[in-house]
Write a structure and sequence with these properties.
Helices cover 49% and strands 11% of the residues. It has 2 domains: 70 residues; 209 residues, Glycoside hydrolase/deacetylase (TIM Barrel, Alpha-Beta Barrel), CATH 3.20.20. Strand 2, helix 4 and strand 3 form a beta-alpha-beta unit. It starts with 12 loop residues before the first helix and ends in a 9-residue tail after the last helix. The strands form 2 sheets. Strands 2, 3, 4, 7, 8 and 9 form a 6-stranded parallel sheet that branches. It contains 10 helices and 9 strands. Helix 8 packs parallel to helix 9.
């Protein structure tokens, strides 16, 4: 789980899109409702003006509705990506025990975005499945497009600190590590993530204590691919297939080093798990499945 990294760029794509949409609407309003030019009025009858004005107004209303729908759709996508059921906020879990025993697993990738992230995304897209990416803040600058693609293609994003430190940190440092990463993720993608994974799975160095205090869900793992070691593709694949279970959270890496073996093993892992009847979900989706199980069932006769 190595690291590497950068300085912050100021880009706010969602704010810019919203600004441009608003500017367009205001411009249309001005065009629709400003007084018509004197020369045009001289050649135009009151009846013609009355006939044209409703068409302009109707076109403007249609455009406003289209812009509104696009903004709502974008906001819904962000909400789905970042939503964590209230009962799991501030909690630490390595897996989700589903009472139903439904065969679902959550693939997670740490230490990106990185040069291998697009390759991982290509594989996930080919199999039409979603995963969760825990990103390192200082890796984002050189790989902004990869991170944008993660969100655009429907995957979930979690916080993996700015520097990937293992050693003990103060509360102030912990706040900076998580806060700077969260701010940059939002700046680049528009996503407000409330998931955290501590580097190396360290629960005692101050980072997790701060994260839970901020109501982050701390996502550990129950299946370790050990792709960060000098393992073979065959051994990695066998390990994940052997340890997979309902509600499993699988640890893999798309960044922090040479992840060619992970890229090679991933299609085999996905394909074999699918043959075993598993389906793939993001960590937020896995939590939502558990939350639904926890809701009291209403007896229709009690209605």
């Amino acid at each position: 789980m190595s690291t590497l990294y950068f300085r912050r760029k100021s880009r706010r794509p969602r704010r810019r899109a919203t600004f441009l949409a608003t500017l367009f609407v205001l411009s249309a309003l001005l065009l629709a409702f400003r007084p018509l030019p004197a020369k045009l009025l001289a050649r135009t009858t009151p009846q013609q003006i009355t006939a044209v004005r409703p068409e302009l107004e109707a076109a403007l209303v249609r455009q406003i509705k289209t812009v509104d729908a696009q903004l709502v759709k974008a906001q819904e996508a962000i909400s789905v990506n970042s939503a964590i059921p209230a009962q799991f906020q501030g909690q630490i879990l390595p897996k989700i025990d589903l009472q139903s025993g439904e065969k679902v697993v959550a693939l997670t990738f740490d230490d990106g975005p990185w040069t291998h992230t697009p390759e991982v995304l290509d594989i996930l897209k080919k199999f039409d499945i979603k995963a969760t990416f825990f990103v390192i803040g200082r890796h984002i600058a050189a790989h902004q497009e990869a991170l944008k693609r993660v969100v655009k293609e429907g995957h979930a994003v979690g916080n993996h600190t700015w520097n990937h430190h293992y050693h003990n940190v103060s509360a102030q440092t912990a706040a900076a590590e998580l806060g700077q990463t969260a701010n940059l993720v939002k700046e680049v993608t528009g996503v407000e993530t409330v998931m955290f994974r501590p580097p190396g799975g360290n629960l005692t160095n101050g980072l997790v204590n701060y994260a839970t205090g901020q109501n982050y869900f701390v996502a550990m793992w129950s299946v370790d691919s050990r792709d960060y070691t000098r393992t073979t593709v065959a051994a990695m694949t066998e390990r994940v297939l052997r340890d997979a279970h309902s509600g499993a959270i699988v640890l893999m890496h798309d960044g922090g080093g040479n992840r060619a073996a992970t890229v090679e093993a991933l299609p085999q892992i996905i394909g074999q798990l699918q043959k075993q009847g598993y389906r793939f979900v993001t960590v937020p989706e896995l939590l939502e499945l558990k939350a639904r199980e926890s809701k009291p069932k209403i007896n229709p006769s009690q209605g």
